[in-house]
Amino acid sequence: MANFIYDNCVLDIYFDKNYGKLYEKIENGQCGVYRYRSKLGAIDNMFIKREIPLLLENEGKYFDIITPYGYGGPIILECYGDKEALVKDYIKKFKSILYNLFSCKNCQF
């Protein structure tokens, strides 16, 4: 059985994807949620992906990600015991994705 660390997340507006979608227009971007699932638990991280208006020859588009205004960042939805191992695995995977896909990551406070 899951040990729910934050079982009220759907009631918290700052972690609701509809809240993030409101900021698509404000931030001129697209709302996304990175969902990490493993045998250790589940973590979600909502963000706004924005194109960086940078033109370089023979290069693709560049993007950054920010959190919608308020508080944001990863939230543990389920943990099956070892929270530290869950967080370490999540960070390793998310850093890899950030490194390969985005130019920077900024959480607004």
List keywords for this structure.
single chain; 109 residues; alpha+beta; five-stranded mixed β-sheet; 2 helices; 5 strands; flat; disordered N terminus
Report what the structure shows.
The protein is of the alpha+beta class and 109 residues long. It has one domain. Helix content is 28%, strand content 32%. The chain has two helices and five strands; from the N terminus they run αββββαβ. It has helices spanning 17-27, 83-101, and strands spanning 29-38, 41-52, 62-66, 74-79, 105-106. Strands 1, 2, 3, 4 and 5 form a five-stranded mixed β-sheet that branches. The radius of gyration is 15 Å and the shape is flat. It starts with 16 loop residues before the first helix and ends with a strand. Residues 1-9 have low confidence and may be disordered.
